[in-house]
Amino acid sequence: MNAPFVPQRERIHLADLADPNETARIEAFVAAHPDATPFHRLAWLQAIAAGTGNRPLALIAEHHGEIVAYLPLSEIHSPIFGRLLASSGFAVDGGLLASDDVDVAAIFAQAEGQALRRSCPAIELRGGSLPQDRAGWTLKTESHCGFVIPLAADDEAQLLAIPRKQRAEVRKGLANSFEIEIGTSARDRAAHYAVYAESVRNLGTPVFPRALFDAVLDRFGTDADILTVRHEGVAVASVLSLYHRGAVMPYWGGGTQAARLLRGNDRMYFELMRHARERGCSHFDFGRSKTNSGAYHFKRNWGFEPEPLTYATWTAPGEAPRDADPTSRKHALQIALWRKLPLAVANRLGPWIARGLG
């Protein structure tokens, strides 16, 4: 009597990220997957490790020697917020990529096991395939929204696509005398970091290490750049953007106090739309924002419609949920105090704290 046929399951294991053949296979899988984002690229995982010191991990599933699923993970260490496995670390997307008919439940089980072995009581999945009705997991469907629109054919059409009130602000910015610089040179990087650091301090948020921005720019090559708006030679607004599959994503951007009066931020985003169009991009991805936050309404004012994002979090049995949400009541006092710090002090302390936010 013949034994019953048992379908072969996937082999799930951590990839050897020091093996060039292994990394090439992962990169090929990501390049071919329709749902891949910049945050699935090994360049992102490696940049996070180089810029923050958090260890990169890649959980892969193989079937007959072919990769059929990939989960990039950053092992985040924070003396303030605790330990975390994030997919992907410091990203707004980058969760599990899987081919059809893959047993994703087994991959989530492996991720849980990795978290426990590494004393990480929490996992965060940002996008991708998510666990459904699995013990220990919580889905968040209303906390964040994404914003994407097609780019218009030319500047005038782009202006007309912006709602009237915001269009008037953009026109004011266009009327001001600014110098626009685009690149990845030391001058571009220094200007961006100075502006971004001041911007996030004013929001009450610790700034990321300068090494993180350098690592992303170095590893993404022509798929990342900095656009800076200067007034009388002084940088007032600057944004580091990623480019992926015909979309531009302004990822780390901000402006000084002077930028508000000069409409420097409005000019910056309009110039980025122009620059992206010249690069051949078809879409502008304004990234995610917390629902009903100031950034959320700012993007709506530009004519972007919010699309709810779904994230998933796992908490180990017996552990309290991780809370690194800057809008939670728990952190309100710290944020208020951080806004009052001298910029030099905030820039010295911020990277030490921010590298553990994940």
Automatic annotation (TrEMBL):
SUPFAM superfamilies in alphabetical order: Acyl-CoA N-acyltransferases (Nat)
Pfam families reported for this sequence: Acetyltransf_6 (PF13480)
Domain of life, per lineage: Bacteria
Domain BioF2-like acetyltransferase positions: 165-300
Cited InterPro entries: Acyl_CoA_acyltransferase, BioF2-like_GNAT_dom, PEP-CTERM_FemAB-rel, PG_Glycine_Bridge_Synth
Designated name of the protein: FemAB family XrtA/PEP-CTERM system-associated protein
Organism: Novosphingobium anseongense
